[in-house]
Structures are given as structure tokens and as C-alpha cells.
Automatic annotation (TrEMBL):
This is carbonic anhydrase. It comes from Paraburkholderia domus. It comes from the Bacteria. The keyword Nucleotide-binding does not apply. The keyword Metal-binding applies.
Length: 223
């Protein structure tokens, strides 16, 4: 807690002068380009990883970067918090992109594979059911990258499953079909610091170096 408190002082004294004008501009409105869905893990810091500033990202974080699927009428089958963030970002903020970002060494993915009954965490156990489809796919269809550890294999497949869950929401499906919303699956390797993007053609997560970044941007521009 001491680190947090002194961090506030550091921001006020050292960083706030750099952001003061931007924060005044954002005081009454925001126009983020993307909804960024990622894990609550302390090692995953979205604004640091994608070099963004206040107002650039509408961020949704939870254990395992999970999105409970919707029913046919668009109601979430799980926690309404995630569904509300989707609706607000798409309908009110009119974001053009939604990114689901998983990561290596994810505790949630480890828990999905082990399901430790001694932990006595009924809420966590129920929440992780939203990753069961990813575990099923890993067991029956195999991993995208066999060189990864099992929980990292699951983490990558989980990103794809959560993208499918997103598409179960009518507002997302309609916006994607209209070409005004784009969904992306990313995966962050904590040890190397590399971010990867899922490529449908190769069916692999490809590292986002300059060449891959330019390819992704061209694809977005074309759509």
C-alpha cells in the first residue's frame, strides 16, 4: 500500500504536468478506439504494453479474460458486468475494435486444468466454467502450439473461445457483419515481453513485430 500512496505523489509531482492538458480535454467525454479485454493479472499492464494514454482504451479486466456467452436475446449467461462493458463500449462509445488478450503463466488457466477442491473458492470455480469450452477444445482438438506448456496452450485457445463468446452477443455480431467493428485475439508472453496476434490463415499466434504490425494495420484499413 505504501507503494501505491507514494505513487500518487510521484504522479502529481512528476507526471501530471505532462498529462494535465489531455486530462482537461477528457474531463467531460471520452472517445476510445478499442475495448481491451484482458486478465486481472498484475503482470499484464495494457497501457504499458500498447503504449497508450488516458482516453485511448476502454478496459475490461477479470480473472482469465473471460466473457460469459449471451443467450439468443443478448442477455449474459453469467456476470452482467462484462455484458454491460460490451454494450456500453459498442453502443455508447462506438469503439471500432475489441481485443481479447490472454497471457502466459495465467493462474486462471492453471486452475482450469487442476481444479483444486481444497481451495474452497466456489465463486472462482463457477467463474472459471467460462473457460471449460477452451479446455474441451484443447483435449479434443489439440493445441495451436505444442511447444508451449499445457496451461499456455489453454490460454491461447481460451482467447479464441472468448472471441466466440463475444460473437454470441447480437450487438457485436451485427456490428461485425456491418464492417464497423473488428475483433482481435492477442496473447502476451510475460517472459519475453512479446505480444502475439492470432492469424486465421496460419491458425497460430504470430509475434507482433514491425512487419506483422504493418500487415495488421493494412488489414484494418482495408476493412
Amino acid at each position: 500500500m505504501r507503494k501505491l500512496i507514494m505513487g500518487i505523489v510521484d504522479f502529481r509531482e512528476r507526471m501530471l504536468p505532462q498529462y494535465a492538458d489531455r486530462l482537461r480535454e477528457l474531463a467531460l467525454t471520452q472517445r476510445p478506439d478499442a475495448l481491451f479485454i484482458t486478465c486481472s493479472d498484475s503482470r499484464v499492464v495494457p497501457d504499458l504494453l500498447v503504449s497508450t494514454h488516458p482516453g485511448d482504451l476502454f478496459t475490461l479486466r477479470n480473472v482469465g479474460n473471460l466473457i460469459p456467452p449471451a443467450t439468443a436475446d443478448g442477455l449474459s449467461t453469467g456476470d452482467f458486468s462484462e455484458a454491460s462493458a460490451i454494450e456500453y463500449s459498442v453502443l455508447v462509445l462506438k469503439v471500432r475494435n475489441i481485443v481479447v488478450c490472454g497471457h502466459s503463466e495465467c493462474g486462471a488457466m492453471k486452475a482450469v486444468l487442476t481444479r483444486n477442491p481444497k481451495l474452497k473458492a466456489p465463486n472462482l470455480d463457477k467463474w472459471l466454467c467460462n473457460a471449460d469450452a477452451a479446455a474441451f477444445r484443447l483435449k479434443h482438438a489439440g493445441a495451436l502450439n505444442l511447444a508451449l506448456k499445457p496451461h499456455d496452450q489453454l490460454s491461447q485457445l481460451n482467447v479464441l473461445i472468448q472471441l466466440e463468446h463475444l460473437m454470441s452477443y447480437p450487438i457485436v455480431r451485427e456490428q461485425v457483419a456491418a464492417g464497423v467493428l473488428h475483433l482481435s485475439g492477442w496473447w502476451f508472453d510475460i517472459e519475453t515481453g512479446d505480444m502475439y496476434a492470432y492469424e486465421g490463415e496460419s491458425k497460430l499466434f504470430e509475434v507482433i513485430d514491425r512487419q506483422e504490425a504493418e500487415r495488421l494495420v493494412r488489414r484494418l484499413d482495408a476493412s
